[in-house]
Amino acid sequence: MASGTLLYAQSGGVTAVINATASAVITEARARRVRVLAARNGILGALREDLIDTSKESIAAIRGLAHTPGGAFGSCRYKLKSVDADRAKYERLLEVLQAHDVRWFLYNGGNDSADTANKVSKLAAEFDYPLTCIGVPKTVDNDLAVTDCCPGFGSAAKYTAVSVREAALDVAAMAETSTKVFVYEAMGRHAGWLAAAAGLAGKGTDDAPHLILFPERAYDEADFLARVEKIVARVGYCVVVASEGIQTADGRFVADAGGGKDSFGHTQLGGVASFLAGRVKDALDMKVHWTLPDYLQRSARHIASRTDLEQALAVGKAAVKLALAGRNATMPVIVRTSDSPYRWKIGEASLDKVANHEKKMPAGFIRRDGYGITAAARAYLEPLIRGEAYPPYGRDGIPAYVTLKNVGVRRKLAAWNEAG
Q1: Side by side, which strands form the sheet with 211-213?
Q2: How far apart are CA 395 and CA 255, in angstroms?
Q3: CATH 3.40.50.460 fits 153-301+375-384, yes or no
Q4: Which of 2, 64, 179, 272 lies at a 20 to 30 A Cα distance from 214?
């Protein structure tokens, strides 16, 4: 067995395939005879010294993670500030790592997680503690820099495209005497990747979605309502997909829920579909239905993309290899080598180039009128939702998802003063 312990943690909003990455991490580490601990509820578990012994889980259970959504070890939205501002917390974290002989730290998350892993690596260097920190990519928003796409996005994109296609068929059937406008809200604070994925639901001029609203384009209410009215007159109904992060020209979130903040300090969004539906009803006097998929779009493992699953497994395996090779402050990334046929490989990027950077939709991916996707966007998106990776089903008709025992290890330090 290799000397030292590997600590794995999950962070931020979980996805349909983040557990697949966890499965690959643990499987690869076991093959190399490396002990793996998992922090319960992300970085909070590390600070609290609330660590899980993954060796207590069976091979079948670890394999089962690959088709189980959610976050098997718990996640969190907890952002550490700069080392200077949060120095006591970083030093506590280092104490916990030292107490359990952790030599490799893998943090599976998005931008903020990459930033945390990067800061921990620098603190360890300052204290001359031999620690290799690896960021492991994950986010349904697809907004991580450098990597071609993010594990978690492909499955959420597939769910979005399929759901919009199916809902559109429903609306089309009822449009003459019932609903004229349907509004679907997709996740995406500053980047419209998931909203763009809805564009895969149709190909023809009059196919749904008829209008896509992107955060990268300012929301113009008068223009939006005029287009809805024209589409209903021409097609008989209108399907709208709106990113939760759409903004007015002055930079105000259309769905700013009273200015609330989440635990990362980001404006709490959600509700843009109901807002738009209300404006359509009031201004155009049309019957409107709207939906907020919310967690459904990121947890829908039953319709996961095969491409996404394969990439989630690949980054987990690569993360362990990079860690054991001593590739500190780095992240495995997906490199696209060909669109047609679609080919990809695993590359490597410095966390300095990933942390606190945000990848938005390229201008060339958004249709000139601002309400749809281009052929270039379709060429990028389509391979990411290809293939099915259905979970096994039980005789009761429900997917056979696994629940781990999550046996904790004995604490060696005094309790962490969370208020301090």
Answers
A1: 211-213, 238-243, 181-186, 288-291
A2: 42
A3: yes
A4: 179
Report the CATH fold assignment for 5-139+302-357. Rossmann fold (3.40.50)
Active site residues: 141
Residue 274: phi, psi to the nearest 5?
A: -65, -35
Cβ atoms < 10 Å from Cβ of 163: 21
Percent of the chain whose pLDDT exceeds 90: 91
* CB neighbour burial string for 268-302, b if at least 16 within 10 angstroms, e if fewer: ebebbbbbbbebbeeebebebbbbbbeeebbbbbb
Residues spanned by CATH 3.40.50.450 within the chain? 5-139+302-357
How do residues 91-122 score in pLDDT, each as one tens digit?
999 999 999 999 999 999 999 999 999 999 99
The CB density around residue 413, as the number of other CB atoms within 10 Å, is 13
Residue with tokens 């189980």: 68
Every domain range in the chain assigned CATH 3.40.50.460: 153-301+375-384
